[in-house]
TrEMBL record, chain A:
PANTHER family: LEUCINE-SPECIFIC-BINDING PROTEIN, PERIPLASMIC BINDING PROTEIN OF ABC TRANSPORTER FOR NATURAL AMINO ACIDS. It comes from Desulfatitalea alkaliphila. Residues 29-373 form the Leucine-binding protein domain. Belongs to the leucine-binding protein family. The keyword Transport does not apply. Keywords: Signal. Transmembrane segments: none annotated. The keyword Cell cycle does not apply. This is ABC transporter substrate-binding protein. InterPro entries: BCAA_transport, Leu-bd, Peripla_BP_I. It comes from the Bacteria.
From TrEMBL, chain B:
It is a multi-pass membrane protein. The keyword Translocase does not apply. One of its GO terms (biological process) is amino acid transport. InterPro entries: ABC_transp_permease, BCAA_transport_permease. This is Branched-chain amino acid ABC transporter permease.
Length: 438, 289
C-alpha cells in the first residue's frame, strides 16, 4: 500500500513538473500576449490589430518555425493603465507566469509601459511597444542592452519625432494662413495639457516658433482631464492668436475642440490631439470638432505604402472604425515578428532579437528600420523621415477625417516633393476667414 | 479682462453651486455625507446620453426620465445601503464611496471608457461685454436661481419643508414632536439625488460623459460645502462663487498655471478653514450644543 501511494505521488510530481517546467513540449501554437487598456479605444486598437494579424497568418497556414507550421494564439490582458499602473504590471506578470506567452505586444502610457517593460525583460520575452512615445523606453535598450534588448518600439515614433512632425504641420498651416488671409505676422497660442510628456514639447515650441517667423501669444496649460476650458479660450481670443498649437493626449482634447468650435474662436488648431485621431471624435464633440488638425497615423483613403489601403479597408470592414496607431500591433506581428521567426526558424528570444534589430520591413505606415544611437549602439527605435515613417496630418472636414499632410512637402530644398495618394487640401474654418479676411 | 473674470466666475460658480446644493441638503437634514452624490450626477448624464442617442428621446423627455430614474435609485440606495448604517457616519461615508465606485464600474461595463457627449439644450452662445458665453452656461446660471427659489418656497411653505427644516435643526426633538425622522431623511435623499440628476442634465452638455466624470466635481463640491459650512445651502452658494472666482483669476492671471486652478481653489478653502473651522456659514448641530 505504501509503495502504491509513493508511486502515485511520484507520478503526480512528474506530471506537474512536465506541465509547469516544459510548456513548449508538444507545443503547436505561438502564444502572443496583447496588453492594453481594453475598456478604452487604445486597448481595443491593440486587440483588433492583433486579431487581424492572427486571422491572416492562421488562414495562410500559420507560422513556419523551422519546418513546423504553428498557429498563433492571442491572450488578452487588460492593463487598466489609465487608472492604475499596478494593474498593468499585474497583467504583465499574469501573461508571463499564468499564460506563459512567447511574445507580448501593446502598452500605452509611458509610466505603465516602463514598468511592464521591466517585467517582460526579466522573463526575457520580446515586447513590441505599440502606444508609448517616450524616448526613455529605447534609451534603456542602448544603455543596458543585455537587459532591455527584448524591447522594440512598434508605434508611434518617439516623442522627439512627434514634435518635429508637429512643427512641420504648424509651418504648413501658418503658410496657408499667410498666403490665403494675407497675415504677415502669425501669432501662436501654445496650449498643452499639464503632463510630463508635454513639458519638453512646450519648451521646444517656445524656442522654435519665433525661429519660424511667428510670435508666441502665450502658453496655457490646462489639466489633462479639464472638462471646461471656456476661460482659457476667452484668454486665448484676447491674446489675438491666429493659430492654437495643441499638445493633447488626454480627454481635454475633446472639450477644447468642442468649445472652441461652438464659440467660433477665430484661430485654427494644429498640433497633437490624440482624441481627434479617433472616429468617435466627431460624435464626442457633437460635430464641433470640424477643421481640427492633428498628427495621425491612418486616414481612410490615404495611401502611405501599397500596404496601407488593404489594411485600413479591411480593418474598417472588420471593426467598423478607422485604425489608430495602437492597432499597429498588426504590423508588429504580421511584418516584424512573424517574418523574423520564419527567417530564424526558432522562437528563441535571443536569436530573434538579432534578426529583428537588423531587418527592414515595409508596413502599412511606411518602412520600419530600427535605429542605432550616435555611438552605434542598438536603440530598437523607429527611424523617422522620408522613405521610412513620416506620419500623417489629418483634418476633420465635415464629419470625415481627411489626410492633408504631406502635401507637396520637401524634406530639404532640393529634395523631391512628397504627397501621399488620397491627400486633400487643408481648409481654413469659415469663421477664421471671416475674422481676418481684409 | 475684468469682464472675463467676472463672467467666468459667475458661470463657474453656478456650476459648483448646482452640485453643492443637493449635497448640503442631505447633509443638513440627515447628516449623511453622500460621496456618491456626483456619481448620481454621472448616472443621470449617461441616462440622458442613452435615451437621446440610442432611444431617440426628445432631450426634455430624456431629462425628465433621467431625474426620475436617478431619484428612484437614490431612494433605493437610502433604503438598502444607508438606512441600516445611518448612525455610523464613518460607515456611511465608506459605503457611499463604495457605491460611487460601483456605479462607475457599472457604467464602464455598459458603455466602456469611450468619451461620449450630449447635445446642448440651447445651442449657441451670446457675447456679453465682449465675453462669449454658451447659452447652456446661462441656462446653468438660471437653473441655480430657479432651484434655489424652488427650494426656498418648498422649505418655507410646505408641510414637508417644515418637517425637513425641523429635522435639520434637531432630529431628536423633531422625532419627539411626532415626525417620522427616517422618512423625512429618505425624502430629503430623494430630493438631493434628484437635484444631482438635474445637475447632470444641465451640466452634461458642457462636459464629457465618461465613467470617471464624477471625480473632479466631487473634489470641488466637497471644497464648496466645507468652505460654505457643512449643511448650509446659503454657505454653499457663497462658497461656490468664491471658488469660481479663484479659478477664473488663476486662468486669466497665470495662463501657464491654468492647471493649478483647482489646487488654488482648494488652498483657499484650507485657508478659510484655518480662520473659521466651521466654514463661512457652518450649521450647528444638536450634538455640538
Amino acid at each position: 500500500m505504501k509503495t502504491v501511494r509513493s508511486l502515485i505521488i511520484i507520478s503526480l510530481v512528474c506530471v506537474l513538473a512536465l506541465a509547469v517546467g516544459v510548456p513548449a513540449w508538444g507545443k503547436d501554437t505561438i502564444k502572443i500576449g496583447v496588453i492594453g487598456p481594453m475598456q478604452f479605444v487604445q486597448g481595443k486598437g491593440h486587440w483588433n490589430g492583433a486579431v487581424m494579424a492572427m486571422e491572416e497568418i492562421n488562414a495562410a497556414g500559420g507560422v513556419n518555425v523551422g519546418g513546423k507550421k504553428m498557429k498563433i494564439e492571442l491572450v488578452q490582458a487588460d492593463s487598466n493603465e489609465f487608472l492604475n499602473v499596478t494593474d498593468a504590471t499585474n497583467a504583465m506578470e499574469l501573461l508571463m507566469t499564468r499564460h506563459r506567452v512567447d511574445f507580448v505586444v501593446g502598452g500605452f502610457r509611458t509610466e505603465a509601459v516602463l514598468a511592464m517593460q521591466d517585467i517582460a525583460m526579466e522573463y526575457e520575452k520580446i515586447f513590441f511597444g505599440a502606444g508609448a512615445a517616450h524616448p526613455e523606453l529605447c534609451l534603456r535598450v542602448a544603455q543596458d542592452y543585455d537587459t532591455y534588448k527584448y524591447f522594440f518600439r512598434a508605434a508611434p515614433f518617439n516623442s522627439n519625432f512627434l514634435v518635429r512632425t508637429s512643427f512641420l504641420h504648424l509651418q504648413f498651416v501658418a503658410g496657408i494662413l499667410k498666403s490665403q488671409l494675407d497675415l504677415p505676422n502669425i501669432k501662436v497660442a501654445i496650449v498643452a495639457e499639464k503632463a510630463m510628456w508635454a513639458d519638453p514639447m512646450v519648451t521646444a515650441s517656445e524656442g522654435v516658433i519665433p525661429k519660424f517667423g511667428m510670435e508666441v501669444a502665450g502658453v496655457w496649460r490646462p489639466s489633462p482631464v479639464a472638462t471646461d476650458v471656456t476661460a482659457e479660450l476667452s484668454a486665448i481670443q484676447r491674446s489675438g492668436a491666429h493659430v492654437i498649437f495643441t499638445i493633447f493626449s488626454s480627454s481635454v482634447g475633446i472639450p477644447f475642440a468642442r468649445q472652441a468650435g461652438e464659440l467660433k474662436i477665430p484661430a485654427v488648431q494644429v498640433g497633437i490631439n490624440v482624441e481627434a485621431q479617433k472616429d468617435g471624435f466627431w460624435e464626442a464633440t457633437q460635430g464641433q470638432g470640424n477643421y481640427i488638425f492633428t498628427l495621425n497615423t491612418y486616414a481612410r483613403g490615404v495611401e502611405q505604402t501599397e500596404l496601407t489601403l488593404p489594411f485600413v479597408n479591411k480593418y474598417v470592414e472588420r471593426f467598423g472604425e478607422t485604425p489608430t496607431y495602437t492597432a499597429d500591433t498588426y504590423s508588429a506581428i504580421r511584418y516584424s515578428l512573424v517574418p523574423a521567426i520564419e527567417n530564424a526558424g526558432t522562437l528563441d528570444s535571443d536569436k530573434l532579437v538579432e534578426v529583428i534589430r537588423d531587418q527592414v520591413v515595409k508596413t502599412p505606415t511606411g518602412t520600419i528600420k530600427y535605429m542605432k544611437d550616435e555611438q552605434g549602439r542598438y536603440l530598437h527605435e523607429l527611424t523617422w523621415g522620408p522613405g521610412y515613417l513620416l506620419g500623417l496630418g489629418v483634418q476633420w472636414q465635415d464629419g470625415k477625417m481627411a489626410g492633408v499632410w504631406p502635401n507637396k512637402w520637401k524634406a530639404a530644398p532640393e529634395a523631391p516633393e512628397i504627397t501621399y495618394k488620397g491627400i486633400v487640401d487643408y481648409k481654413i474654418p469659415p469663421w477664421v476667414v471671416e475674422a481676418y479676411k481684409k | 479682462m475684468i469682464f472675463d473674470i467676472v463672467i467666468t466666475s459667475l458661470i463657474k460658480g453656478s456650476t459648483y453651486a448646482m452640485l453643492a446644493i443637493g449635497f448640503s441638503l442631505i447633509f443638513g437634514v440627515a447628516r449623511i455625507v453622500n460621496i456618491a452624490h456626483t456619481a448620481f450626477y454621472m448616472v443621470a448624464a449617461y441616462c440622458i446620453f442613452y435615451t437621446t442617442t440610442q432611444l431617440g428621446f426628445n432631450p426634455i423627455l430624456a431629462i425628465f426620465v433621467a431625474v426620475i430614474l436617478v431619484s428612484l435609485l437614490g431612494l433605493i440606495t437610502f433604503k438598502l445601503l444607508i438606512a441600516p448604517i445611518r448612525e455610523h457616519e464613518a460607515a456611511v461615508l465608506i459605503a457611499t464611496i463604495a457605491l460611487a465606485i460601483a456605479l462607475q464600474e457599472v457604467m464602464m461595463i455598459l458603455f466602456t471608457g469611450d468619451y461620449r457627449s450630449v447635445p446642448p439644450l440651447v445651442p449657441g452662445f451670446a457675447t456679453i461685454m465682449g465675453v462669449k458665453v454658451f447659452y447652456q452656461q446661462l441656462l446653468t446660471f438660471v437653473s441655480v436661481l430657479v432651484v434655489l427659489g424652488l427650494m426656498y418656497l418648498f422649505l418655507q411653505y410646505t408641510r414637508l419643508g417644515l418637517a425637513i427644516r425641523a429635522t435639520a435643526q434637531d432630529r431628536e426633538v423633531a422625532n419627539l414632536m411626532g415626525m417620522n425622522e427616517s422618512q423625512v431623511a429618505m425624502l430629503a435623499m430623494g430630493i438631493s439625488v434628484g437635484l444631482a440628476g438635474v445637475t447632470g442634465a444641465v451640466l452634461a452638455p458642457l462636459s464629457i460623459v465618461e465613467p470617471h466624470m464624477w471625480n473632479h466635481p466631487l473634489a470641488m463640491m466637497l471644497a464648496v460645502v466645507v468652505l460654505g459650512g457643512l449643511g448650509s445651502i446659503k454657505g454653499s452658494l457663497y462658497a461656490a462663487f468664491i471658488l469660481g472666482t479663484a479659478e477664473a483669476l488663476v486662468v486669466f492671471m497665470i495662463p501657464a498655471g491654468a492647471y493649478l486652478k483647482g489646487a488654488v481653489a482648494l488652498s483657499i478653502m484650507v485657508f478659510v478653514l484655518l480662520v473659521r473651522p466651521a466654514g463661512l456659514f457652518g450649521v450647528q448641530f444638536e450634538e455640538e450644543r
